[in-house]
Amino acid sequence: MNKPLPAHNIGNYVPMIDGPDKVSGRAKYTADILALGQLAGRIYRSPYAHAEIIEVDVSQALELPGVRAIVTGADCDKTFGVLPIARSEHPLARDKVRYRGEPGAAVAAVDDEAPREEAEQY
After folding, report:
1. How many whole angstroms separate alpha carbon 26 and alpha carbon 18?
2. 31, 73, 80, 117: least buried by Cβ within 10 Å?
3. pLDDT(80) > 90
């Protein structure tokens, strides 16, 4: 078992050991990891500043080769929020969009091309 070491670095210089990798582009981030069978995701955002969502038809998108799943606001009935005053938020728009760019749907596909093609239809 690892023993915790006392930290005495308040007010002292602490070297950024990952700094050189980050500024040189050698650092690996989650987006850099590719695994066999991994799906690509894309979030579709509202082009409207304020609009009522009457219907979301995903049937054509589900027929595209490579598309595995689509999630809309209707699928997200649980709220979340980091701050106590924002715990009534939904991850995707439901019933209406309140600002341009609000997330409305998410697509998972075998590659990035399938969801990109679907986005170009709208």
Report:
1. 10
2. 31
3. no
